[in-house]
């Protein structure tokens, strides 16, 4: 009987110092709760904001499903779930680019801007995956290419076309755009840190600080996916109350 139980254990044991396992578990729960929150609040907003809230919910929902698998994968193998991690990102990060486009649509944003951001984000992630999973010897080089794509995104939203559109829109849209810009500049910068902690290279000192790649990624995801969604939620709340007051 004993052995049957250990063989078919449904819930993995978790060591008290398993920070990776812990952050996967909490991350999973947080993403689920955030998705319920965004989906259920959708109908409180004016029609034109509903798609933005829907996308916020999709981002955390897609992450919740991947966290479910990553939590399991880690508990079973005690190994980074690199594949699931990047599948999650390659779906959710482009959706964050869509979010930028959706809020700037009121100022006349074109689809080409959205596709440009999506393209750069995919380049950033695919090259990151190569460095982490395929050619770890050249992780620094893949990380560098990924970093260039990242800075191209930062440039477009901070100083380029997206910034111009946000300024044309003004008001709440401009404020929300600015906050999202900070998320990308500071919040997204958490990820290259995780990458440096988890891949070999001249920067290996980062790993010596005792930082773990998956813990860093998990914290980054919680901040960025849920935080990003809340900024959009806030914008939709303010914009909807203004129109109903008018
Ligand atoms: C929800 C997931 C998000 C917002 C993921 C963002 C990921 C990045 C900004 C990753 C960036 C990377 C670099 C800039 C260089 C090293 C490789 C990456 C992929 C970790």
Commentary on this structure:
This protein has helices at 2-7, 19-41, 47-77, 82-104, 111-134, 139-158, 161-169, 171-187, 190-198, 205-208, 213-245. The chain is an all-alpha fold and 246 residues long. The chain has a single domain (2-245), classed as Rhopdopsin 7-helix transmembrane proteins, CATH 1.20.1070.10. α3 packs antiparallel against α4 (82-104), α3 (47-77) runs antiparallel to α11 (213-245) and α4 runs antiparallel to α5. The longest helix is centred in the C-terminal third of the chain and has 33 residues, at 213-245. It is globular and about 55 Å long. It binds retinal.
Keywords:
Rhopdopsin 7-helix transmembrane proteins; binds retinal; Arc/bac/fun_rhodopsins; 246 residues; sensory transduction; 0% strand; 11 helices; mainly alpha
Question: Quick gist of this model?
Answer:
This protein has 246 residues and is mainly α. The chain is built from eleven helices and no strands.
Topology readout:
Layout: H1 2-7, H2 19-41, H3 47-77, H4 82-104, H5 111-134, H6 139-158, H7 161-169, H8 171-187, H9 190-198, H10 205-208, H11 213-245
Helix pairs in contact: 2-3, 2-11, 3-4, 3-11, 4-5, 5-6, 7-8, 8-11, 9-11
Retinal (RET) is lined by residues 89, 92-93, 124-125, 128, 143, 146-147, 150, 188, 191-192, 195, 221, 224-225.
Family: Belongs to the archaeal/bacterial/fungal opsin family.
Modified residues (N6-(retinylidene)lysine): 225
Protein name: Bacteriorhodopsin
